[in-house]
Amino acid sequence: MKAMMISASRNSEGQTARAANAVLAGLGEKGFECERVFLPTLRIESCHQCDDEGWGLCRSERRCVIEDDFAEVVSKMAAADVLVFATPVYMSEPAESMKAFTDRLRRIVGWQKEGNPLLGKQAVCLSVAGGGGGGAPKCAWMMDGLLKSYGLELQDNIPLRRQNLQMKLPHLADVGRWLADCVEDAEG
Fold this sequence. Notes:
Layout: E1 2-7, H1 15-29, E2 33-38, H2 57-61, H3 70-79, E3 82-90, E4 93-94, H4 96-109, E5 122-129, H5 136-149, E6 153-161, H6 165-187
Parallel strand pairs: 1-2, 1-3, 3-5, 5-6
Antiparallel strand pairs: 3-4
């Protein structure tokens, strides 16, 4: 079984990574092979809204014409059994790299269910706020709507803040173990 973390943080040692790594540790305990992708380290452009109607091949062929790292990440997501989305929170919103990625993702999977490689995949989302932490719930709400519209089975959507992160790390490992059980239940 495979799990994939899609992180909008560049810092592999920061708060967002610590939260996501706790979930992955729980999945790892259940035998999952875990891969980590840090979106800011990749070349992922913003949507070009290719034709006059604002679409392109994404609508007719479910693929993007931009030649960057986007297609490879989506291919890896399609091969994974579990997806862990993790984003820092900036001004109550997901980080820019997550917004660019999810804007393009919705164009190839969000508008219809037939042929959607993410349909029914188990997922969890972490929105990790620094500063005062007050923007985490709004960011989590935004990510909830996006991820569910892609056909994902969003099992949990957790707003976190730097002030409570250390206390919640053991709980996040529990979330990973529980998510592994969700995959087994969905398959069985």
